[in-house]
Amino acid sequence: MPAAGGRGQRRPLRRNNPDFDESPPRNNARNVNRRGGSGQSGVMGGFGSWLASMSGAMCSSCGSDSNTARMEKEDTEGFLDTEQLLPHPEPQEPVREEPKRKKGSCIGRCLHRVCCAICCILFLIFLIYAIALGTLVKMSADRYVNISPEARRYTDMYLTMKNITHSIEWPGCGQATSIRDIHDDCASPCYASDLPKGMDKFNEEHPGIVVSYLSREHELVKQTTLRGWWLPAGKLVVPEPTTTITTTTTTTSTTTVTKTTTTQTSTTKTATTTTTTTMDPAILKKEREEELKELQRDKDKKKDDKDDKEETERRLKEDKLSERGHEDNNEPEPVPAPAHDGAAPPRIILVPSMQANSWHVEPQLVAYMLRDLGFDVLVTDYRDYGLSEQSRDQIQQGSDVYPYDVLGAWDFARNDPYNFMGGPVPAEKVGIIGLASGGMVVLDAFGMEGDIPAIWVDSSPVSMHRRVVDETKEYLETLGLPEDYAEHIMTAFLHPTWYVLEGWARLRGSSFMRYTPEKELPYSPDTERRVAVVHNKADMVVEEEEATSLLKLLGSYPKKFEVHDWDTDGTCHGSGHLATMFFEHNIYKTRLCEFWRATFDMDPETCLPDEDSP
Asked: Distance (Å, rounded) from C-alpha 238 to C-alpha 459?
């Protein structure tokens, strides 16, 4: 037998070998004697096994498959795989080695963090700026782009000249429900309660009506039906309407009923309605022939009275357009008042602010003054305002469209196509007054139409751009900005607010800059037309710089305009905007009289302050 530990002896199993070493293998597993030997023979045996395995691999690569199989068989015949008998060590978690830090990596990380912080701060600043700018733009859009709720105020209250004075809001006294609500305790010191009481009495004795007319036609502007208050200086003569009703009923054996109704009104309109029910064809044919004969007679009569018919149709068309106004007034169609001195009195178009309508107290008060001075007044409304036709967009169209609304009212008052006012008058007998932002529209219309003899503007801005910038500045000043940075902050917001607002208006179909006084007034004829400019130094809505700019613009064309300026200084219950007509009522009325009587070639010497008038 071969010696112990020899090459051909199989190592005994554990249960037959009491000298089996159960100790765990050494760390260097490659030097462990897989055959169980010890000492040099064990080392050589392990080396031999490794050498044999390497040789087999080399031979296998060279194609010696038979030698490899024989060596593997000899190597495994007398051995037992100790890995099946030795205990396995517990798996250990791999140790994460820290990557070696490259030179300069700390500086790179710091720069990265600083850049991220700067970007976050800039984004936050931009976000805050965008929110603040959006707030300012929305505030301006609500005032200058969107239609204000004041545009339709009072139109659903069924007001007439008999009750409008004590049903609208007065400064200091608020919304009134009766004339007793407007008393000295709430009105003073701005005005006396005698002013609204005198106005209420005058309007009750001099009623007015709501009339309809069209804006001036233009290829770029949609023609719209407008409505306004026609307020004559004289007392309206309202005749009793005459109504004739004739009813005829005929009954035959064949149950034939013929009913004819004829109604004749003050407009000489005749309407005939015939209803026939019959069971006999012969009688029905006879009735039909009689009806045709009657229609032929009516046709011949209408042909003879063609001119009268056209005039009647125009009246009926106007009645239909002003149907809402007649319903609200609950007054019959008036007959124009007798003309003063045998001629129709001059007429003045009154244009309210774009933040009000013809029903508000300011236009109604000025209309009362003018009527008391002997001038007929048409208080007009823009489209989407008052009872005028409503558009789909519901946006303010300022100098883009409203000048054509004003010119349409001027055309109506001059031509009087429906004979509401006593017939047409020459163009030099029709002037225009504009209040607040309505004054800017009047300036545009004045530059477009060279036949308007004169205009009167009170608290009027000259540029929508400046108006928006000034209002934004006024709002920012109320926020209490630091004095050191206030100018820079305002610079960052004022003009961007205007540019964003203008772009927003253009997207909605409007434009602030299509027609402006700077563009239109230079094209006026060299006829020295009269312009009155009224401004209150205490007005914080339209500041004094606006009036200065307007006077400078008008003064640049001495051959075109004869300028009359009037500066006042005072407030009415904390507001200086459109306040002069209240705290300087008598002087305001006198100035109106002097300016307009001189414009219409009337004697201005009679325009003395009436101390007894309110």
From this structure: 38
Give tens-digit pLDDT for 532-563.
999 999 998 888 888 999 999 999 999 999 99
Burial 253-273 (b: 16+ CB within 10 A, else e): eeebebebeeeeeeeeeeeee
What pTM does this model have?
A: 0.65
Which whole-number Å values give the CA distances from 302 to 215, 270, 296, in the listed order?
32, 11, 10
CA within 13 Å, CB half, 323 = 5
**CB distance 315 to 323 below 8 Å:** no
- Identify the helix (H) or strand (E) that includes residue 442: helix 437-448
The residue among 413, 407, 434 whose CA lies nearest residue 352 is 434
Q: Is 423 left (phi over 0), alpha (psi -120 to 50) or beta?
A: left
Highest mean pLDDT among 254-258, 468-472, 527-531 belongs to: 527-531
CA distance 29 to 442: 107
Helix or strand holding residue 561 (H, E): strand 561-568
Q: Please give the full DSSP string across 296-325, using - where no structure is assigned.
A: HHHHHHHHHTHHHHHHHHHHHHHHHHTHHH
User: 271 pairs with which residues across the strands?
Assistant: 263
Token pair for 592: 């109106």
**What would the pLDDT profile of 128-162 be if each residue is shown by its tens digit?**
888 888 888 888 777 777 787 888 899 888 888 99
CB < 8 Å & 24+ apart, contacts of 186-194 = 189/583, 190/571, 190/572, 190/573, 190/579, 190/582, 190/583, 191/572, 191/582, 191/583, 191/585, 192/614, 194/614
CB 26 within 8 A of CB 42: no
